[in-house]
Amino acid sequence: MYIRPIVNKMKLISCKATVQLFANRFMQAQLANLMDINPLSEEDKTALVRLLSDPDPDIFRSIRLVLLNCGMEVRSCLQAGLDSDDRLVRQRSWKLITLLDRKTADADFISFCRRGGENLNLEKGSWSLIKTTFPHFDQESYQKVLDGYAERVRKDCDPEQSFPATLMAINRVFFHEEGFIGDKINYYDPQNSYLNRVMDRKLGNPISLCLLYLFIARRLNLPLVGVAMPGHFILRLQSSTFNIFVDPFNMGNFLTQSQCEERLKRCGFGFESDFLSPVSPRRILLRICSNLHQIYQKAQHLGERDRIQKYLINLAN
After folding, report:
1. Fewest CB within 10 A of the end CB: N or C in the chain?
2. Residue 221, pLDDT above cutoff 60
3. Does the structure show a pLDDT above 80 at 1?
4. What is each CA distance from 282 to 41, 125, 223, in whole angstroms?
């Protein structure tokens, strides 16, 4: 099958039958693996990007299929499409760039999940997970915001002198000054699981607020760890002098071990000592992805559910 002559015809006229014939032949060759398809030249790809201006949704779907199959090699042509005078070309080029970049981020996160053991880099993993949904978010700017929170806490107290005082200072900055709160109204909103959206909206679920609190504490060298209690994620500061549990979903409330045990029993979980033990970074990411998997399943967002399923498999192994 010769693609270039077909593309040359498409350059002259945006004909629905021609485009669909091109895509249908392309799909048949891919599925049957019986034909040798010559790779598209830059000129061919550019011509296809120009054809994104056709308002017919069938033609768009056909061109979209071919362009996406080119992989990242077509990204530069799509980038050029962002400067087009045609609104549809600009919009569709951006959508296709986003899909390609999400696919790259997906592969990067799976690669991250496959290495690092139990104590992988939790903050790096959290940013990497965000890119699978928001590939163009500015990671550096969000990290700088967390750096700024930590600096404000450090100006308020000396973390090396008093752990409890530092926790109270984090609470002042994070909850009272910045206004972060637990989302008790739309608890299962998937945005509550992506830290960029949590920071944008200042709303989150227990585990996402715990992560932001933890990342601030780590910038201050506080010995804070995650605790994956059944039904509720909290933090624990454990030192030779202090054993304090912190609940960021409820404005950073301090809890004793007996209060945690009481909550577990009240919620019908009973109590086992492991319920209050530190959990590894890998298990934390696994819990985040498990939450997202359940959310997407319930909402019947099956494509997103299946994407998260791949992460669960790689994190569990």
Report:
1. C
2. yes
3. no
4. 43, 9, 18
For residue 256, give the 3-state DSSP assignment: coil
Same domain, 78 and 130: no
Tell me the CA end-to-end span of the chain in Å, nearest whole number. 42
Q: Enumerate the H helices of the chain as residue ranges.
A: 3-12, 16-32, 42-50, 57-69, 75-81, 87-113, 122-131, 139-156, 163-171, 195-201, 206-219, 257-266, 281-298, 302-316
pLDDT of 19 strictly over 90: no
Domain that holds residue 194: 122-316
Structural domain count of the chain: 2
Q: Is the pLDDT of residue 162 over 80?
A: yes
* 92 lies in the same domain as 26: yes
Report helix angle 281-298 to 206-219, nearest 10: 150
- Please tell me whether residues 101 and 134 are part of one structural domain: no
* Residue 189, token pair as written in the block: 């909103």
Contact status, residue 45 vs residue 74, Cβ threshold 8 Å? yes
Tell me the per-residue pLDDT of 88-123, one tens digit each, with 9 for 90 and over. Answer: 999 999 999 999 999 999 999 999 999 878 999 999
pLDDT at 17 over 60: no
| pTM listed for this prediction | 0.86
One domain for residues 155 and 302: yes
Q: Read off φ and ψ for residue 245, nearest 5 degrees.
A: -100, 140
| Integer Cα distance of 176 and 308 in angstroms | 34
And the tokens for 99?
């899909």
Rounded-to-integer distance, Cα 38 and Cα 23, Å: 14
Looking at the fold, whether 177 and 37 belong to one and the same domain comes out as no
CA separation for the pair 84, 51 (Å, rounded): 11
